[in-house]
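Mods, move this if it's the wrong board.
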Amino acid sequence: MISVVDKKVIKHLYTSGTTMVEVPIRLKFEYQLHDHTFVSGSMQREYLYNREALISHCPQIDIDLFEAQVMTVVDQSLMEHLRYSRQAEGDIDLYGSKVVEPVEEVPLQELVMPGDDQPPRDDVELILPKSDPDS
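Not the wrong board. Structure tokens:
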């Protein structure tokens, strides 16, 4: 049995009305491997994002809904990591709870891998829609 510990920075794109905010999420996770295969239910994770900056940019945000979206994005990222590394396939039971409530799927944004040219950032970047040059 082998323990794997890793860190990643993923990004979640939050949209509300005409506002789009890209939120970097620092993710630390640990899981067990047996014969190069993920041990079902062994995943542990911690994540961190700059909540105060997000609230200051989007004061109308429903933080409970946003937190649920973040958890979904984090879990999708973990499953993608396991599939990409060929340590798991099919239906993955990350936390040992086979009963999974259906959750609205949130598209997974581009992953920033360690060693990329961009260092992880704790701030929130505000993305505004492009203006039409004809108007």
